[in-house]
Amino acid sequence: VELRYEFINRIAEAVSKKDPNAGVTTLCYSGGGSYPKAKLHPSVAIQICLSLQAYYHPGIYARHHALYKEWVQKEIKNRPLMVYTYMLSPHSEATHIYRYNKFFPFLYPWKTAEYVKEFARDGIRGWFCEINLQQHILECYLSTRITYDGSVNTDKLIEDYFRNYYGKA
Fold first, then answer.
1. What are the Cα distances from residue 82, in Å, to 7, 15, 64, 99, 156?
2. Whole-prediction pTM
3. Which of 17, 36, 37, 91 has a CA positioned 20 to 30 A from the CA of residue 162?
4. Residue 96 CB burial class (10 angstroms; 0-12, 13-18, ≥19)
5. How far, in Å, CA of 68 to CA of 46, rounded?
6. How far apart are alpha carbons 118 and 113 in whole angstroms?
């Protein structure tokens, strides 16, 4: 991990010499993205990768949330922090990892809204979502609306979505 951030710092330093207004962004994965011991170059931005679809697993949630909060507490005032969210479960694991196509799709719009509202409150500057639209368009819709307006009433959005999407069904 430390070598990676040292390498990123060297790149940022070289870029800054050529253009003082330029910056470098790097991904911070939960598996190998612990907070570095070395001080980061001022022009480095961080995009924290989080598996929102794993919120129901207490160990994964605890690890991801702790990593996220550490970055926010230590760096939100020093550099742009962004998040890269995965909303793929269970389709992705079923079809790509375990190679079967029998799974029960589930929705987690309320949890998604909770997390994305936290990002907005914390001052996160950007959001990217890797999603299976066939399974989780509602979560993507909510996230997009919240990133546009962090004060939006998500319960009303979810209610409107179901009423408009499914009608009287």
1. 20, 20, 14, 32, 26
2. 0.86
3. 91
4. exposed
5. 11
6. 8
Produce one character per residue of 147-159: b if its CB has 16 or more CB atoms within 10 Å, e if not: beeeeeebeebbe
Write down how long the chain is: 169
* DSSP H/E element including 3: helix 2-18
Across-strand partners of 47?
27, 82
